[in-house]
TrEMBL record:
Family from the record: Belongs to the pirin family.
CDD domains cross-referenced by the UniProt entry: cupin_Yhhw_N
Domain spans labelled Pirin N-terminal: 10-120
Species assigned in the record: Gelatiniphilus marinus
Name used for this protein in its record: Pirin family protein
Pfam families: Pirin (PF02678), Pirin_C_2 (PF17954)
Length: 237
């Protein structure tokens, strides 16, 4: 087993007024040669956008982009004609493929929106762009990880063009769950959204991250009430 730990306070930080963002991996003006990516996981941004503000229309290509709102409402528009609002309890995925433009803005005029912006390198380049979002409220489980993203169109959650699986878990203090790696050669990056946990002997708190690879499974124990996002991705691309 190999592991790397990224404590919350070591992340890159950019406060633009309208946007307050923490970067687990190198992004925009934050560059750390030792923190470019974790396998196919390229970007993990913890964003807060002020009321009525947001990211104007901009382009992307050949990237799988996932948004997970943590609080508030995020309005999405893109060059494919999609107009949607995603909120806490939803997951959004967008395959940029051959190229798209899109905007993401805080729908609310009276409070900030908090969300995770995640980029994953695709398995196949130049695919037809696509957009999807789902509500995960009905599939959420207590004290057990539940799948919100996979490579399979007919599986639970949204899907993307990569051999990657995302799971969320809401745990009360003292509960434990084991996560088994889906594909040989993949690793898992765990991001602690809230609370405190112990993962394979490592104590982690809110917004800490740990990447683990060369293992068949990981064990997560809640030492306080906690919410955890697991991102299984290929370690080679």
């Amino acid at each position: 087993m190999n592991k790397i730990i990224h404590k919350a306070e070591t992340r890159g930080h950019a406060n633009h007024g309208w946007l307050n963002s923490y970067h687990t991996f190198s992004f925009a003006n934050y560059y750390n040669p030792e923190r470019i990516n974790f396998g196919a996981l390229r970007v993990l941004n913890d964003d807060r956008v002020q009321a009525g503000m947001g990211f104007g229309t901009h382009p992307h290509d050949n990237m799988e982009i996932i948004s997970i709102p943590l609080d508030g409402d995020l309005e999405h528009k893109d060059s494919m004609g999609n107009v949607a609002v995603i909120k806490e309890g939803d997951v959004q995925v967008m395959s940029a493929g051959t190229g798209i433009t899109h905007s993401e803005k805080n729908k609310n005029k009276d409070k900030e929106v908090k969300f995770l912006q995640i980029w994953v390198f695709p398995k196949t380049k130049n695919v037809t762009p696509r957009y999807d979002q789902i509500s995960i409220r009905e599939i959420a489980k207590d004290n057990k990880f539940y799948q919100v993203l996979s490579p399979n169109k007919n599986d639970q959650g949204v899907w993307l063009h990569q051999d990657a699986w995302f799971h969320l878990g809401n745990f009360t203090k003292g509960n434990t769950d084991e996560y088994k790696i889906k594909k040989n050669g993949n690793g898992v990056y765990a991001f602690i959204l809230n609370g405190e946990v112990e993962i394979d002997g490592e104590k982690l708190s809110k917004r800490d991250g740990i990447g683990i690879w060369d293992t068949e499974s990981i064990s997560v124990k809640a030492t306080e009430n906690a919410r955890v996002l697991l991102m299984e991705v290929p370690m080679t691309m």
